[in-house]
Specification:
single chain, about 190 residues, mainly beta, Lipocalin, 2 helices, about 15% helix, elongated
Length: about 190
């Protein structure tokens, strides 16, 4: 009798585990993911740039309202559309790409409104320093991609960082602001 209950108990344990854990893994789609920044230029115009090389992953559990995201950005891939400005941004004055070739955002706190992610909070590592950063979702959705035949989740996220917290002080004495707006458009494909 004892041996006949074993398969039933094992099946029940597997079903219980299947219903409580719905976390799924997603890979960042570099063709639909952009990391951009904006900073005021003497209060007259806005300097903008983006990073062309990035990679990462997301673990997302709608039922548990939790997740984790990791995005690594190649800082040498900074692109403003103006080569001399790109070179200055890559220099030791700003991103110091020879010494610090990447920056990384790792977030493990997701806030939700219903099924929609409203913000992700974690840490940004830049120039060898790590500080908290929260990105608010201005758009979030999951859909079944008709071409990939897989679920894709993503949205537009934005936040403001104080670049001086990372030791990026160039131009502060001339009146350049310390606050930089970071905008991340991300889509991730279920694996």
């Amino acid at each position: 009798m004892r041996s006949s209950l074993l398969p039933i108990v094992a099946a029940a344990a597997l079903l219980a585990g299947a219903t409580t854990s719905q976390a799924a893994s997603y890979a960042i789609d570099p063709g639909h993911t952009y990391v951009t920044f904006e900073i005021s230029h003497f209060g007259t115009s806005t300097n903008r740039g983006r990073f062309d090389k990035k990679e990462g992953s997301v673990v997302f559990d709608r039922a548990a309202k939790s997740g984790k995201v990791e995005i690594t950005v190649d800082t040498s891939s900074v692109n403003t559309g103006f080569v001399p400005f790109n070179k200055h941004l890559q220099s030791a004055d700003l991103f110091d790409v020879e010494k610090f070739p990447t920056m990384k955002f790792v977030a493990d706190k997701f806030n939700f409104n219903g099924d929609k992610v409203t913000e992700v909070s974690g840490n940004l590592t830049l120039l060898g320093k790590t500080n908290p950063l929260t990105l608010k979702a201005t758009n979030f959705n999951c859909y079944d991609n008709p071409m990939l035949k897989r679920e894709v989740c993503g949205g537009d996220f934005e936040g403001t960082l104080d670049r001086t917290q990372y030791g990026m002080n160039y131009g502060i004495d001339w009146g350049f602001p310390k606050n930089v707006r970071l905008v991340v458009q991300v889509e991730a494909v279920k694996q």
